Amino acid sequence: MGSTEEATEKPLLEATPIYRCKDAGCKAWVREEYLPEDKACPLCKGPMLKSIKHLPPTGKPKKKAKATAKTSR
Ligand SMILES: [Zn+2]
Q1: Alpha carbon of 44 to ligand 1 centroid (Å)
Q2: Looking at residues 14-22, what average pLDDT do you find?
């Protein structure tokens, strides 16, 4: 009792949605926002699983998905 708990400044981590490779032997993972459209692992092209990873915030303002001007073709 009486031990002063020092509030050590930990780097703030945010629970970030990520996708990681289903293959246990493959350590590839990407942030959800960087997931390729085909949702394939960048390393082994296998399927990926949605997960959560605690990452330091990027500090960048969240960009909205590009308003891609669809050219009618
Ligand atoms: Zn993989």
Answers
A1: 4
A2: 95
